[in-house]
Amino acid sequence: MDIYLLSDSDLDRYRSEPKKKSSSTRRKQKLGHFEQQFELVSVEDSSRQFRIFTRCSTSNEGVFSVGLVLIFPDKELVLCRYNSGHHGHRNRLEKTRVPPQNHKHITTERYIRAGLDPDGYAEPRSDYTTMQEALAKLLQECNIEGIPAGIVGSPRQDSSTQQSFFE
Known about the structure:
disordered C terminus, 9-stranded mixed sheet
């Protein structure tokens, strides 16, 4: 798939089409953060696959990112991601700044065609403060079924108390 052919309406369609969980992983610790992933399939076309990722700092649970990835046979494309406000963001094409507050990155046709990070555009958000709330927003806004938002644990949560993700 040539991502340079994707329009904003294609990207919006991928974000909004109904998706359901096909599998998931247990939370793993990696280089200063916890990570968990959920594999998804399109309800309309089971050959179209997606992944949700959640990442949270091991030392500060207020530093997190939750995103949706579209999986092609030869590459992956982050469609959107919800970040905590631990840093600001610069929208390079618009020459604007998002202050250090929660923000949502959105993949756009303009950023793809400009050869920049496809999800390089971000907008400030005030409708989530925790990783669980960010996941709930992603699930709602990206039309995803089968994953309760509370399934991702806090970095301080003992992994032996986590619910099984292989249900």
